[in-house]
Design goal:
Layout: E1 2-3, E2 8-10, E3 16-22, E4 27-29, E5 33-43, E6 46-47, E7 52-54, E8 58-60, E9 68-71, E10 83-88, E11 93-96, E12 98-100, E13 107-110, E14 116-123, E15 139-144, E16 153-159, E17 175-177, E18 182-184, E19 193-196, E20 199-201
Length: about 200
């Protein structure tokens, strides 16, 4: 358990069976970590920056004020070799409790017919030409480790503060970004669903 009133740093060279975050100021590992069993949030955030956090079997207590921060304010650049990682069994659904330092924007993956290891990140700005008023002003990256066939079903969650001024919640679409292009997927994925006041998903 990490508790306190100021940001805590730690280094560990072996797997952690259970990790409890109970520090409102946050906890920052100095190296990538592997959690064997449970990651529990009592209060505060767990920061990744340029590191990996490998999730164990269970995540509990995550929410708007307690989650894994994959991009801090002033440090929103993309680290390709970093993020939150988890192997998902065939047809299993898992929510990754991620966000930026300013907002909780978890992403939920439902795996296809084969086991796959995914690495995800949330970014505190939109990519490339997506950075305008008609888009969400946040982005997610999803990486596959095993490179098996098939793709997951993805559900995004965001907040009112993540929306551009002209963002249309009734007609959501997904843009796929590669190193060389920005492509808006064909067709609409429909209207957003309200999760709670000021929180939406699609």
């Amino acid at each position: 358990t990490f508790n306190g009133t100021s940001l805590q740093n730690f280094y560990i060279n072996s797997a952690i069976e259970n990790l409890n975050i109970a520090n409102p100021a946050g906890v920052y590992p100095r190296n990538s970590i592997v959690i064997g069993n449970t990651l529990n949030f009592t209060s505060g955030k767990l920061y990744t920056d340029s590191l990996y956090i490998n999730l164990g079997t269970t995540v509990t207590g995550a929410g708007a004020n307690s989650y894994i921060v994959t991009a801090r304010a002033g440090n929103g650049k993309l680290f390709m070799a970093s993020g939150v990682r988890k192997t998902i069994a065939p047809s299993q659904t898992l929510q990754f409790p991620i966000g930026t330092s300013s907002s909780y924007t978890p992403i939920t993956l439902t795996n296809s017919a084969v086991s796959e290891t995914y690495t995800v990140r949330a970014m505190d700005s939109a990519f490339k030409t997506a950075n305008n008023n008609s888009h969400l002003q946040t982005s997610w990256t999803i990486g596959k480790t095993l490179n098996e066939t098939g793709s997951p079903t993805v559900q995004f969650q965001w907040n009112t503060i993540n929306e551009g001024a002209a963002f249309n919640r009734a007609n959501c679409r997904v843009a796929v970004v590669t190193p060389t292009e920005f492509v808006i997927a064909k067709g609409s994925i429909g209207a957003a669903t309200t999760v709670s006041a000021g929180v939406y998903k699609t």
